[in-house]
Amino acid sequence: MGVTVACRAPAARAWTRHVRVRGTQILRLLGLGHDELSLALVDDAEIRALNAAYRKRDRPTDVLAFALTEDASPGVPLPVAMTARRARVLGDVVISIDTAAAQARDDGVDVAARLDALLIHGVLHLVGYDHERSHVEERRMQRKERALCAALPRLVSGHEVTEVPAPTIPSAAPRRTRESRTAARPPATKARRRGATSRARR
Predict the structure, then answer these.
(1) Residue 189 located in a structural domain
(2) Number of compact structural domains in the chain
(3) Which residues pair with 197 in a beta bridge?
(4) Are 173 and 146 in contact (CB under 8 A)?
(5) pLDDT tens over the chain, length 202 residues
(6) Contact in structure between 25 and 43 (CB atoms under 8 Å)
(7) In this structure, is residue 175 part of a structural domain?
(8) Is 172 contained in some domain?
(9) Does the residue 113 lie in any domain?
């Protein structure tokens, strides 16, 4: 169990350790530290192909999420639904390093911060959050995103500086994202269709 990272783009190699550490921290903060998460860092060409195949949108996007568990129930966050159950694979989060870097440049933030935001967004979709369901749910997900960002410990050279606090996440003011999208589950699996993108670069 744990976080596995597949690096399928040369530009993403420097970020493999970062996203593995962050993925582990995010799961711990959500109370899912014993579960498994699969991450993939890809280029725009690969995520465009995935976006076209599963969402019928022939363009690059920033993040896609594919849930592997049936327990990601609407309105029931996974930490509640899975407390008394055995550990399992949550699903896959695919991030385009090309789009993430472009968004970081456009927003005046570093790539690490943008990757953190995309990873949090994808993982929350895997555990039952869905901003496209309603405005109330969108605000709930945005509060959770901000709270997780604030709770992540500082990293130096990819290593954690302080211990991750207990998994209770405080509420935070909502923040709107520029674009929201939903991706379908690949038909090869038996899991329910679920996914997400944060913001597409046109």
Answers:
(1) no
(2) 1
(3) 181
(4) yes
(5) 589 999 999 999 999 999 999 999 999 999 999 899 999 999 999 999 999 999 999 999 999 999 986 555 544 455 544 445 577 889 999 999 999 999 999 999 999 999 999 999 999 999 999 887 889 989 999 999 999 999 998 755 455 554 444 444 444 333 333 443 445 444 333 343 445 667 644 4
(6) no
(7) no
(8) no
(9) yes
